[in-house]
Amino acid sequence: MSTIHSSDSTATPFFWRDECLPFIEARSVEDGRLVCYAPHSHETFSIGAITAGQSTYLHEKSSQRVTAGTAVLMNPGDVHACNPVNNQPWSYLMLYVDSHWLGDIQQDIGLNAESGFQPLPYTHTSDPLLFGKLTALYQTLTDAKSDTLQKHCTAVAFFTLMLETFDAAPAPPLQLSPRVTRAAEYINDNFTRPIK
């Protein structure tokens, strides 16, 4: 049975969950100017879609502007926050996915030989196919006319597509701070000497 929490206010987030699908929950916000969060993290894998406007997306130690059509991704434990740019209107939806369930999909499709979820090296994507499928998954999950099997199959199909897409794409380059780079160079150049 689905549980839906909502109100008529655009400031109140809309929440969805279904006890028959305990591996996934959904949330949406119509006016993100009215619902702001300090940096935080989740125990789940999280993926969101910016559905209108733009926001500032803080992920760990990087910050960037994301716009409608962008999907943002957070591995379990990643510190993040999305907030309005200059108090401009924006809206978004989020899915919170059990990482063990997602790890099982990684294993089932051959992307992970070990058990457990392997974190993704991406923080966002503007891929129109993934964005469209993500918003379609949200619509299916929150549609009272969709049955549990349809919701489950749509979730498996979306996350299979997402994982295969990111596995086929080259990983984004690792951005090290200049201090870390200098320290690594120093250690590499002086590894035979005691470091003081």
Automatic annotation (TrEMBL):
Keywords (A to Z) from UniProt: DNA-binding, Transcription, Transcription regulation
Domain AraC-type arabinose-binding/dimerisation, residue spans: 37-137
One record GO biological process: regulation of DNA-templated transcription
GO MF term set: DNA binding
Gene3D superfamilies reported for this sequence: Jelly Rolls
Spans traversing the lipid bilayer: none
Keyword Heme: no
Pfam family, one: AraC_binding
Protein name: AraC family transcriptional regulator
Lineage, top ranks: Bacteria, Pseudomonadati, Pseudomonadota, Gammaproteobacteria, Pseudomonadales
